[in-house]
Amino acid sequence: MDLGIAGKWALVCGGSKGLGWGCAQALASEGVNVVLTARDGVRLEQAANALRAVAPRAEVRTAVGDITTPEGRRAALDAAPRVDILINNAGGPPAGDMRAWARDDWIRALDANMLAPIALIRETVDAMAERNYGRVINITSSAVKAPIAALGLSNGARTGLTGFVAGLARQPALAGRNVTFNNLLPGTFDTDRLRANLAVMAERAQQPLDDYTGMRRRAIPTQRFGTPDEFGALCAFLCSVHAGYITGQNLLLDGGAYPGTF
Ligand code: NAP
User: Fold this and answer.
1) 193 CB near ligand 1 (under 6 Å)
2) 88 φ, ψ to 5°?
3) Could you tell which of 11, 39, 66 is best to mutate to test the pocket of ligand 1, judged by most ligand atoms within 8 Å of the CB?
4) In this predicted model, what pLDDT tens digit does every residue of 148-177 receive, in sequence order?
5) Residue 226 main-chain phi, psi, to 5 deg
6) Centre of ligand 1 from the C-alpha of residue 88, in Å
């Protein structure tokens, strides 16, 4: 299927690895020009070169910076001639107990997982509407649908973004101009972040890492973790010309782990 988006410009936040990288790769493979952002400039350039190698049709640019800061967002926006596709993504907040979280911890979580995406949306969507095409994808978490107690900072901040997006997506001034907003909710995906988390959790559970990882895999109906490629493929479809009638949705990608009917 031709997704019909070759030549568009995408800003992929947190695009140097993991789920952001999966989205960038899928979009660039469709001929979408991509701006990748991340804080570590060396790894970002490596990712950009890898992308150029697999997707020679696409122009790939980079913007080093922290997307939770105004400067990081300015650098990201300035690197693209325009933003047709916005993939909002950043690291998730740490696990813990609410008794240990001070106001600053909450502000950091809100900045990364709610306010930075909203700031980028604010900067880009009116121009998308003028051009009669726009796609905003927010990478959130399955924890929005089924909260994970230890991830209270994430549950709170991402649910705030989800509520905001639900209202915005339904504004005729945007939806009626072919600007769509959807959230992708990853369950357990095989990325550096997951591997780091598993190492910590295995140690806490006093289990060998392989045993603990196997137990986590077996707890998922598909008996495996998801891959960034699978994640990117759905992202690219939602950004396609074929997905203009899908907006304001929360799409769970979790190998069937969520046990409910809906
Ligand atoms: P990852 O492999 O650690 O990749 C994160 C990417 O974001 C990297 O490119 C990282 O590069 C960049 N990044 C992080 N913080 C940033 C910041 N402040 N400014 C700019 N770039 C930043 O993580 P992932 O597994 O792909 O996860 C992506 C998102 O999905 C996270 O919010 C995570 O909590 C959420 N999620 C993931 C899973 C999963 O199973 N993997 C499940 C649920 C939710 P730099 O470090 O160089 O900046």
Assistant:
1) yes
2) -85, 130
3) 39
4) 888 999 999 999 999 999 999 999 999 999
5) -75, 165
6) 10
User: Ligand 1 within 6 A of 162 CB?
Assistant: no
Q: Are 86 and 37 in contact (CB under 8 A)?
A: no
CA distances to 106, 164, 231 from 114, in Å? 11, 9, 21
Domains along the sequence of the chain with CATH? 9-188+227-253 (3.40.50.720), 190-225 (no CATH)
Closest atom of ligand 1 to CA, residue 16: 9
CA 140 to ligand 1 center in whole angstroms = 10
Mean pLDDT of 181-204: 94
Angle, CA 45 vertex, CA 41 and CA 46 arms, to 5°: 120
Check residue 139 and give its pLDDT.
98
Residue 39 beta carbon below 6 angstroms from any ligand 1 atom? yes
* Rounded alpha-carbon distances, angstroms, from residue 137 to 41, 81, 198: 24, 19, 27
Calculate how far, in angstroms, residue 165's C-alpha sits from the geometric centre of ligand 1: 20
How many Cβ atoms from other residues are within 10 Å of residue 188's Cβ? 21
Q: What is the pTM of this model?
A: 0.98
**Residue 185, both tokens:** 């909710």
Q: pLDDT value at position 12?
A: 98
SS3 190: coil
Mean predicted confidence (pLDDT) in 220-227: 98
Residue-wise pLDDT for 95-143, tens only, equals 899 999 999 999 999 999 999 999 999 999 999 999 999 999 999 999 9
